[in-house]
Amino acid sequence: MSGCPFGGGEHDAGAAGSAAQAPSAAAAHAPAPASAAVAAATPTQEAPASRLSRRGLLSLAGAGGAGALAGLAAGLLSHDTLAAVAAPAQAQAGTGDVVPFHGATQAGITTAAQDRLHMAAFDVITEDRSALIQLLKDWTAAAEAMTRGREAGTTGAVDGPYDAPPEDTGEALGLSAGKLTVTFGFGAGLFEKDGKARFGLAGRRPEALINLPHFPGDDLQPNRSGGDIIVQACADDPQVAVHAIRNLARIGFGTVRVRWSQLGFGRTSSTSRQQTPRNLFGFKDGTNNLKAEDTSLLQEHVWAGAGSRPEEAWMQGGSYLVARRIRMHIEIWDRTSLREQEQLIGRTKSEGAPLSGGKEFTAPDFAIQGKDGEPLMGMDSHVRLAHADQNNGVRMLRRGYNYTDGSDGLGHLDAGLFFIAFVKDPRTHYVPMQLAMSKQDTLALEYLKHTGSALAAVPPGIQPGGFVGEGLFT
After folding, report:
1. Total count of domains within the chain
2. pTM for the complete prediction?
3. pLDDT digits (tens, 9 = 90+) for 182-211
């Protein structure tokens, strides 16, 4: 279903052939030109040394016996030897499954889309600015550790006091980093509540961080919408992604509470040179999505500028995250003919080619007519309405996932698409397109229902020694 089904479309007709190979994990969130100044202005600090745990000490003794312990006591063992023992076993397997946490932009945006998602929204339940800042520092440290395949906290899951709760929940012990990325964003509620500024952030809310309008056909549920802080954890292992959100929630107890969360599987877009996946309607999804290799297009459509006011400069090099929970009427779709399915989408189900002809990555031709004189790609087809040519050239970077949350108690699957997109400015890069589609797209009108919605300002990347959102508070 091409660039952006159910709310953001065929917005990059030329992206598919823009690069010869995928970027490395380190290059997946390389600095964009506009964010270079942010990175340069942020002080750096050497990463803390690995701790030598009781388990590591015992393993050292097992490896070298009393002589090794004597060497440890005398300070004769090499730094490399100590580091190898101190590092968790899963981190010693190599760095191929580790996505760098630090950078000019946050990981989890242009990073090659992983297979699993756990996203959560938190409400901040304190009005203490210092407590919020400390939480963000603690979350930053925990996220950085977990993305390297390490445990959260200084004593982890089993090395702390026996009669105290562990600092890590432990379900990821023995698992690799799984290409985990943890991406943070701030909702409008962090800046003001009941018309009053919060945490000394008066005037710091970006103008682009709007309250999304109620689109026609929306059936939004309060317990699936909004949130002061949005956290996206993506990984190739579902347990790794769940572990990340669970530990952040544990660390935040008393300062934040979970407002909603969503599990996702089977990515519905590709953000690099990946095979095009399929959504739960069975159609290829994300054919013409923006790619990490399209640096100039990312600068134009994804990375935020400094804003129109000095108070917004902290967002330069960041982006805006749009999240929409879109339930599919699976049972109705499954009783729809293949002909009608393809006409609604505007692409073939097998190849993913536009109905105007060609193959998957062939640009659609909206002018071609059929024997009846009508366009081969219907005026209400999803591809036509979502295409960049129909939306003032606007494009976005999507990172959506399929979801299945059981049944609704009436024998219907509660399943669909958890739509995620990163845009430069939601006022121009999302709202107009969604308004048009919600009124004209037959697919959206008859087969989809939006039940959750959130928008967050995603700050630029984090430097060693810094914390997420540091520019906002300093």
Report:
1. 1
2. 0.82
3. 999 999 999 999 999 999 999 999 999 999
